[in-house]
Amino acid sequence: MHTNVINCAGRGTLSLVRQDRRESLNIKQGDILKINAGTTAYLINRDNNEKLILAKLLQPVSSPGEFELFFGAGGENPESFFRAFSDEILEAAFNTRRDRLQRIFGQQKQGVIVKASEEQVRAMSRHEEGGIWPFGGETKGTINIYQQRPTHSNQYGQLYEVDANQYRQLRDLDLTVSLANITQGAMTAPSYNSKATKIALVIDGEGYFEMACPHMSRSRGSYQGETRGRTSYQRVTSRLRPGTVVIVPAGHPFVAVASSNQNLQVLCFEVNANNNEKFPLAGRRNVMNQLEREAKELAFGMPAREVEEVFRSQQEEFFFKGPRQQQQGRADA
């Protein structure tokens, strides 16, 4: 499986091994990188005072929707795949006695994450920041999402994005990575993707989300809606907190709101990103403003002037005052 990784917190060193080459790269918060399928990878935390937190998007190459981790180095926990072979095969393959092989492949019992000494960490961290990523020619090893110019930015939030034009290795994965920092009490504009599926992970803060869904079963989730004609849209909603994952299918309008006491940071992987378009449904550039006056009258059954007053009243773009801020503003007025 191919793995797309973003470092959410901390400092680490990632080492990759393929055939007769081993390369390592020091990574920091905000770094994005790709690990090709079949690569042996191991990671250390270089900071004694901070956790190293990574978000990974795994894309299987053989069985869609299924993946397994394979451990070569290991013992009983994690179990090395070498233990699946017969003693005769291992003796012949390694030209080593059975008792020695049993000790090597039966010693490790500490689990997938083990404690390293300071000397071991220093020895495995003697690499420069950045550099040329192994096995990929002149492709950059990492790109840092925090060092990109925000796609959208105002007092209510910032959106950072990295796509295949900025980081070539995302092209093979058909992927875009974004990070939204929503100011406390603020919200994103309702919007939808034309073809990309959004996988959103909350990495800091709290809030809630709402999504319009035309085919959500009434037996699932939390929603409210009314049937209008042949199509019924349900409102899917949930609280957001660190570790929450939300999947937004293409074409589904979606909005996120930060709590009133802290910012909300949401990391997003957008799959099927090639030629995807984002359509805002509110704000200065919302798509409804592009309709002819006659189309607005026919679609909403109201005079175009009244429709335009509603859709043109929001002058911000992508990030707005949230519901409570709007209510407070009206009360103060």
Automatic annotation (TrEMBL):
Q: Which domain of life is it from?
A: Eukaryota
Protein name, entry field = Vicilin-like antimicrobial peptides 2-2
Which ranges carry the Cupin type-1 domain? 143-308
A Pfam family the protein falls into: Cupin_1
Signal sequence interval, chain numbering: none
